[in-house]
Fold this protein.
Amino acid sequence: MLFDLLTALLDSWSLWNEAAGDADTGQRWRREYLRLTYAAGGYRPYEALVVEAGRAHGIGAGAIEALIARWDGLAPWPEAPGVVAEVARAVKVGVVTNCSDDLGHRAVMRVGVPFDVIVTAEAAGAYKPRPEPYRLALDTLGIPAERVLFVAGSRYDIPGAGGVGMPVWWHNRIHMDRGDLPAPLAEHDSLTPLLGDLISGPTPSRVTREDSAAS
C-alpha cells in the first residue's frame, strides 16, 4: 500500500498556517505552491517553489524561513501511526510525496512507523500528479499497480495514481471539493475506515506482505 505523506498522513496544512501567521494567508500560500508544483513539469527545487509561492502573495522571508524551521514539528493525524502500523503488519507500505529528499525523509520520521518505500519528487525527477513518482514507487515495491492501493491526500492523487493503474482510497480530511475528477474507491475524512475497508473491500485485489516479498 502506498500513501500520500504530507496530506494523507500528516497535518501539513496547520504547519503552513502557523508559519504564515493565520489560516487564510497560509491556505492561499499553500494553494499557490500546489499550483506551481502541478505546473512544474520536471522537478524544480521544493524550497524554491515555496519561496515563489510566498512572494506571489506578499509573504515575507520570515514566514518562509519559519515553515522550513518548523518542519520537524509536522504532526501526524491522530489515528495515522496506528493505522499505518496495522496495515504494515499485513502488506508492504510506502509513501510518495511532493517534496525534496531531505524534507521528505524528515517528514516520514514524524509518522513514527517504518516504511518499505519512500519516494520524493526529487528522487522521481517530477512532482505528482505526473506519473513518474507513482511509477518509481511501484517499481521499488515490485508489485503490479492494480494490486497496490494508493491512499490519496490531495484530490489530484486520484487521477495521478489512478492514471498508472492503482485503485485510489481518498483521505479527504479537510473536505475538499472533488469537482469533475473521477470518483475514488472510497472517500473518508479519517484514516480509521481504511482498516475496515481492507477487510471488506473495496480493493479489487489484495497482496499480503509474504506475497510482496516474493514478487
